[in-house]
Amino acid sequence: MIKLTRSIKIVSEKIINTSFIVSHKASTKDFTRKRTLSFQIIFMQILRKTVKSLQVSLNELFMSNHIASVVTSSAYTQARKKFKHTAFIELNDDIVNIFYSDDSGIKKWRNYRCLGADASKVILPLTPDIEVEYGSIAIKNQSMTGRFSQGMFECYYDVLNHMAVKCALAHGLSYEVNLAIEMLDVATRHDLLIYDRGYASYEFLATLTQQQKNFLIRCPVNSFKDAQKLAKDPSKWSCMATLTPCNNQQKNTKEKKLPFEIQVRFIKVILSTGEIEILATSLIDPTITCEEFKWLYGMRWSVETYFSRVKGRLCLENFTGKTVESIKQDFWSTIFISNFETMATGNIHDELNKNKINMQHEKKVNTAVSFNAIKNMAFDIFNNNTNQDESVQKMILLFKSNPILQRPERESPPRQKTSDHRSYNFLRRVKKMIF
User: Fold this and answer.
1) Helix 86-99 vs helix 324-345: angle between axes, to the nearest 10 degrees?
2) DSSP-based three-state secondary structure for 206
3) Residue ranges covered by each domain of the chain
4) Cα-trace Rg, the chain
5) Is 280 helix (H, G, I), strand (E, B) or coil?
6) How far is CA 155 from CA 37, 75, 98, 199, 256, in A?
7) How far, in Å, are 116, 205, 237, 281 from residue 265 at the CA level?
8) pLDDT of 8-30, one tens digit each?
């Protein structure tokens, strides 16, 4: 509650602070006069992004007494141009810093903060400006010819505490490994970085080793000779290996001033299906068991569920504008609200399970409920002129309502590609919108 209170105080004070507004407005002339659509109102409206029509959403602001007069969608669109997405970046950084300001309530593994890294493609509206910023991809098949635009969403995600520590929305054709390297400043010696097999290369391993980062990476079984030997040896589950770049990588390794020899530990884990996985790691502690490595890599899946949550629950790809700035506003407001939800629900999990009997399933907060509560109550929570403490208590009460059960023993069905017809039917008729 202390961290949540601090976060709310910082956000509510900054969005009405003159220096903060000056730092995050498009022009010196913007937000200088008292108007219905103030900086604070624009911030709230972008944050509360809804699937309703824009005019209906603005009318609801008037009916709820959040604004003094009716405004048109055109007026909002013009006012929004004055607002810079960097406001959400700064406030998101504040949330993350407060969350990690001390170790109270922070989950770790062997004193490591575990950061899973991955990338996901985000479909964007296709306009000339967006195409210049994020690129486009051609489509050509028997029935159509065209193109679409997409961005690359890269994220370092705390898999134990469910906090997006560092994010980026880059050009759609960006290489996710290069993005991960550019964002390595997020990690310290107290972090363990977890990657899937798309990141397994000598160059990336050498970069992590050179920068003294702790890592755990899944490797294709046929990627390195030592990994192949370990996979075939039934008597071993771990081995140390000295890796060097192959002939066609030596020039690139030299140009990037990377080491020509690195020490890596390979770990063999066997899945319930009998499939063999090989993991490469910098951790050489002999007390770490094979089961711990298996569990640790399994936690990386939290990054995938995070992408699913922001695209599904928060409708990231349902952008509310067709300019580059509106894309960035929607993207960073989504990151902000997801991290704020993690901050707000942090202690609720323990409260929901404090009276749990051994055989009962654990309960967790329903994100459909929590995101809906935050969006509906944003004006009360982040407004110094309201009873914020009372609003926060109401919000927490809603978090505790209608929890969902965790069933870890439930088997997941085989992963299959969903057909376009089935996906369309889900989005139009089945999916439950939260706001």
Assistant:
1) 20
2) helix
3) 2-88+324-430, 109-303
4) 24
5) strand
6) 33, 34, 19, 14, 24
7) 19, 11, 11, 5
8) 999 999 999 999 999 999 999 99
Q: Are 297 and 271 in contact (CB under 8 A)?
A: no
Which band of pLDDT confidence, cut at 50, 70 and 90, is reported for residue 385?
Answer: confident
Q: Which of 316, 331, 318, 327 is nearest to 129 (CA)?
A: 327
What single letter denotes the amino acid at residue 177? V
Smallest CA-to-CA distance from 196 within 157, 242, 244 is with 157
Question: Between 337 and 383, whose confidence is greater?
Answer: 337
| Placement of tokens 């030592």 in the chain | 226
Say whether pTM exceeds 0.85. Answer: yes
Please report the pLDDT score of residue 408 as a whole number: 64
| Residue appearing with tokens 């079984």 | 221
Q: How far apart are CA 276 and CA 419, in angstroms?
A: 29
277-302 pLDDT tens trace: 999 999 999 999 999 999 999 999 99
Give tens-digit pLDDT for 134-158.
999 888 887 778 889 999 999 999 9
- The sign one gets for the Cα dihedral 428, 431, 432, 435 is negative
Q: Torsion over CA of 50, 52, 53 and 54, rounded to 10 degrees?
A: -30
Residue 404: pLDDT band with limits 50, 70, 90: confident
> Would you list the DSSP string of 365-412?
--HHHHHHHHHHHHHHHT-TTS-HHHHHHHHHHHHHSS-EEE-TTSPP
SS3 track for 160-195: CCCEEEEEEEEECCCCHHHHHHHCHHHCCCCEEEEE
Top mean-pLDDT range of 1-10, 269-278, 323-332, 348-357: 323-332
H or E element that contains 352: helix 348-352
Judge whether residue 274 has pLDDT over 80: yes
The Cβ of residue 2 has, within 10 Å, a number of other Cβ atoms equal to: 11
Spatial neighbors of 365 by CB under 8 A, at least 6 apart, are 345, 348, 349, 352, 399, 400, 403, 404
DSSP 354: T
| Mean pLDDT confidence for 314-324 | 93
Residue 68's CB is within 10 A of a number of other CB atoms, namely 8
